[in-house]
Amino acid sequence: MPAVRRFWLVLITVCTMLSAQAGVEKYQLTLLLSPSVEWVYFRGSQNADLYNELFGSKLSYNFGFEYKRFFDPSLSFSTGFLYQNKGFRNTYVERNPDGSTQEGITVGSAHLATIPLYLNAHHRLARKKEMIYTAGLGVGYLMSQTVRNRNYTGEDDVTEGLFDVGDGRSNINFFRDLYLGLHVGVGISAYVKSRIVLIVQPMYKYQLNDGRNPSLPIQDLFAAKMNSLSVDFKVGYFFNRQIRNRKKDV
Known about the structure:
Strand order of the largest sheet: 1-2-3-4-5-7-8-9
Mean pLDDT: 82
Radius of gyration: 22 Å
Largest sheet: 8 strands, antiparallel, barrel
Distance between the termini: 54 Å
Low-confidence stretches: 156-161, 242-250
Structural class: mainly beta
Helix content: 10-25%
Number of strands: 9
Oligomer: single chain
């Protein structure tokens, strides 16, 4: 799996280079957890509207850590590691032969290991509070992709259903391996004691490249993008005297 090895090599190299500079720069390490709403947006096909109606949104989550280097108190660069559980949730009402109905549900999950590359602008509101404006890229590798079906009785028939799989969990090959996303957000941070910071930041993540696997054996050449809205909850720790220096400025 050369692509996986290359991905982890890039991650290790970036972290090593940034750590080597940590002794002379103001920096912060942050843990983050973010609930999210995930969906897939289709375009480039006459059936795109039908796909967008069929592929609904799902509630999901992300987590990871962040390294933030300050160039000055108003500007910083951040990177790190982010696990993203992207995908969709589809609902289909099926009518049984006896006239009753049952709801068929498909939940798709695309598990991504992502390196964020962000620029952050910091606007001071008070002595211990500031606004944070973030924009940048997320570069990710698709580790696995699955669907979980419930009550899709026709999925075992290749002429019916969405992915030709039965009830339960199955592997799929719907999304491409590389993810490139534009990530933007606005949040607020509050400093606790001298070195701990709490951050709440809504983020919008839009996939720039086509997320559809180009080797799918279908004739409809649509484009699919995995997008999301999330709220990042972060706890950070400064390994310098930045907050103490701020107190002296008041």
